[in-house]
Amino acid sequence: MVDVALLRLPHAHDLPLPAYQSEDAAGLDLIAAVEAPLTLPPLGRALVPTGLAMALPSGYEAQVRPRSGLAAKHGVTVLNSPGTVDADYRGEVKVILINLSDTPFTIHRGDRIAQMIIAPVSRARLVESETLDTTNRGAGGFGSTGRS
User: Fold this and answer.
1) pLDDT per residue over 9-19, tens digit each?
2) Is position 52 within any domain?
3) Rounded distance, CA 38 to CA 148, Å?
4) What total of structural domains would you count in the chain?
5) pTM over the 0.90 mark
6) pLDDT digits (tens, 9 = 90+) for 10-66
7) 55 CB contacts (<8 Å, ≥6 apart)?
8) Using omega within 30 degrees of 0 as the cis cutoff, is the peptide bond preceding 49 cis?
9) Residue of 37, 18, 40, 21 lying closest to 93 (CA atoms)
10) Distance between CA atoms of 93 and 109, rounded to whole angstroms?
11) Which domain holds residue 64?
């Protein structure tokens, strides 16, 4: 378990903090800190505030992912999924939601809009090379390993 410093911003003063909804849940639910209901028209998108800022420890990130219920029941998902919050970011966490359904969807204050996963980060050292080793797949691209 890792400790993450969380700052509740003034416009989220009355909202619950993110929480795991079950014993083995991987994600913390993020809450909409909108002042008034926000309606996403079909194919509409919006940057939805959570009212939270945080200080992740170095070597960690927060991934903002869709909630499966919103996607399955309403066609609403996180547009840049997963969104990444870097350890050195100190601004408000906001969620880019998009309505992929054919009906408007309204977001109310306190609605659970996304989930956040705290995860360790692996950094790579890129080493330029003149050649690459060969594999059975080779340069086969999208759909080359079988039926999609």
Assistant:
1) 999 999 999 99
2) yes
3) 37
4) 1
5) no
6) 999 999 999 999 999 999 999 999 999 999 999 999 999 999 999 999 999 999 999
7) 4, 5, 7, 87, 90
8) no
9) 18
10) 15
11) 5-120
